[in-house]
Structure formats: structure tokens, C-alpha cells
């Protein structure tokens, strides 16, 4: 049995260096006086990105589902100082281990686990057909872990809309970020515990899968139409009442009398305009990665992503 003493704690922290690259809506890349920027490893480990992408090409070819797992890992890492309550549903640690081992062999104690995860998340998106973005690098790895942060900050799949908005707001993320980042559910699977308000035929089909297997923990595609392709089909399915999770469907239906229908309007906009979704997703990914970055003399560059040095 593998025991993860400190699983990837607060690693993935990014901050943009060129606001023009993201439409001018995000501050320039100077966090607490220390720059992070895409060329951070240009001299200290120029082969870093090639190492990550070369390995990741092989990994996703063998197991396409790993792309969604690494995107999810990046999300959990940004929102909390560890992911223990969700560790049984988080996959991808072994891929990060192998990427990190190759990086350590080429450039010892140079490329952080934070940047390794962020690079893997971008690779997941691109190799699944989604958008590319310039990724600011140079973040450090945390020396601590927080179970309470994980319990309180990670949105559960049965979240109400207000709960989602509140949890995202705590991280400095708004409703546009919430809907855009939820779009990563366009790839991967989720536990087959469907929202009761789903379109009837789809709901019955999901339930029949669980009953046949005799297991309530059966997984189903979050986007059954194109589960390995990063596109805007996820939002189209929500409009048809076919979002797998309650936290998907409430983006459309969960305003419950609130006059602010922004999430509903965004779901409709993204369903009709994939380019708009891609642009907002990229901006929100960078913004999410900017949550409490560890840079400069803060944190460390881990030799093993599962343990502090």
C-alpha cells in the first residue's frame, strides 16, 4: 500500500507575465516582487518542457483518461493544501512521479512539482484538443499540508450553485471563472451519482448501469458525447439536462429565484461559441493558478513530489 505523506501540497501556483496575452484582464507577472514567466527555465533547465510533453504524449496515448485526471489534480492543488478527502478519486500521481524523476535526472532540484503539474495540466488540455496558453513558470512547492483546507475548499459534486459561488469566491474567482473552469468536465469520468433533475431517459440509463453492476460507485463519462475530446459539448449537454453531476446542472438551473442568471447565461454562451469558452477557460486557468503563489524564498523545489525535502 502506498502511503502519501504530503501529497502535492499547494504546488500549482501561476501568475501571468503578459496581460495582453489574456485580453488585458489579468495583472502582470510580478507577485510579491518576484517575477514568474514562461522562460523561467530557459537557462537552468531548457529541456524541461520537452521532457514533460514527450512523456505525456506516451502516457495519454496509453491511457486517454489520464488527461482529465491531471487537470483535476491541478484544480484540487490550487484550491487546497492537500487533496486527502478526495484521494481515492484522484488519479495521476504516478504520472507526476515519472515526469519528476526524468526532470530530476536532467536538472536536479530545479523544476518544481508545482510547475510539473501545471505543465501536465496544460498538456492534458492541448493533447485532448483544447486551447494552448503561455504558462508562467517559476513557482515553488509547499512545505506544509492542510486537511482542513481540503475539507472546506474543495467543492463536492452535490454542491448547490450558491455553495459553488461561495467556494470559488473565497479563492478570488468569480462566476465566469466557475463556469469556464467547470468546462474541464468536458473530458474524464465521474461517480455515477446523477442529479435527480436530469433528463429522464438519461437518468434512467445511468441508474441502470449502476444496478447492473451492483455498485453505486460505478463511473460514467462527464461528457458522454465526446469524453476524451476537450470541446464545448459539456455545455450543450447541460442545456439538454444531461450533465452528470448536480454541480454541473446547477450552473443552468440553480439560481432558484436569484435575479442574477450569469451562470445560466454563460452556459448558453459557451454552448453556442466554443472559441469564447476556450478564451475564458485559458484566462481562468491562469487566474486559478495565481491563488497564493509560493515564489522567491518561499517554499522549496521538492526532489519527490510526495514528500518534503
Automatic annotation (TrEMBL):
Organism: Papaver nudicaule
Cofactor(s) needed: heme b; Ca(2+)
UniProt cross-references to InterPro entries, sorted A to Z: Haem_peroxidase (IPR002016), Haem_peroxidase_sf (IPR010255), Peroxidase_pln (IPR000823), Peroxidases_AS (IPR019794), Secretory_peroxidase (IPR033905)
PANTHER family linked to this entry: PEROXIDASE 72-RELATED, PEROXIDASE 9
Domain spans labelled Plant heme peroxidase family profile: 35-309
Family designation: Belongs to the peroxidase family. Classical plant (class III) peroxidase subfamily.
Gene3D superfamilies listed in its UniProt record: 1.10.520.10, Peroxidase, domain 2
The keyword Cell wall biogenesis/degradation appears for this protein: no
Binding site for Ca(2+) 1: 77
Name by which UniProt lists this protein: Peroxidase
Amino acid at each position: 500500500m502506498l502511503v502519501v505523506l504530503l501529497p502535492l501540497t499547494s504546488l500549482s501556483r501561476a501568475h501571468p507575465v503578459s496581460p495582453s496575452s489574456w485580453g488585458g484582464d489579468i495583472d502582470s507577472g510580478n507577485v510579491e516582487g518576484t517575477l514568474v514567466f514562461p522562460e523561467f527555465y530557459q537557462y537552468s533547465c531548457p529541456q524541461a518542457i520537452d521532457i514533460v510533453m514527450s512523456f505525456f504524449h506516451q502516457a495519454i496515448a496509453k491511457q486517454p483518461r489520464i488527461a482529465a485526471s491531471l487537470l483535476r489534480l491541478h484544480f484540487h492543488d490550487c484550491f487546497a493544501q492537500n487533496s486527502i478527502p478526495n484521494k481515492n478519486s484522484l488519479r495521476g500521481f504516478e504520472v507526476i512521479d515519472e515526469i519528476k524523476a526524468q526532470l530530476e535526472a536532467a536538472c536536479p532540484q530545479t523544476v518544481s512539482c508545482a510547475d510539473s503539474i501545471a505543465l501536465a495540466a496544460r498538456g492534458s488540455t492541448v493533447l485532448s484538443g483544447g486551447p494552448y496558453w503561455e504558462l508562467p513558470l517559476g513557482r515553488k512547492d509547499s512545505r506544509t499540508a492542510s486537511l482542513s483546507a481540503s475539507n472546506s475548499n474543495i467543492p463536492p459534486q452535490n454542491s448547490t450553485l450558491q455553495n459553488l459561488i461561495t467556494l470559488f469566491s473565497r479563492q478570488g474567482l468569480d462566476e465566469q471563472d466557475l463556469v469556464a473552469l467547470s468546462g474541464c468536465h468536458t473530458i474524464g469520468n465521474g461517480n455515477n451519482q446523477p442529479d435527480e433533475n436530469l433528463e429522464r431517459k438519461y437518468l434512467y440509463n445511468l441508474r441502470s448501469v449502476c444496478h447492473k453492476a451492483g455498485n453505486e460507485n460505478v463511473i460514467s463519462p462527464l461528457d458522454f458525447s465526446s469524453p476524451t475530446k476537450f470541446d464545448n459539448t459539456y455545455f450543450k449537454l447541460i442545456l439538454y439536462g444531461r450533465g452528470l453531476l448536480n454541480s454541473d446542472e446547477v450552473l443552468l438551473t440553480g439560481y432558484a429565484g436569484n435575479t442574477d442568471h450569469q451562470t445560466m447565461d454563460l452556459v448558453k454562451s459557451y454552448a453556442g461559441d466554443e472559441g469564447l469558452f476556450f478564451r475564458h477557460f485559458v484566462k481562468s486557468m491562469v487566474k486559478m493558478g495565481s491563488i497564493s503563489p509560493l515564489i522567491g524564498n518561499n517554499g522549496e523545489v521538492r526532489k519527490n513530489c510526495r514528500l518534503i525535502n
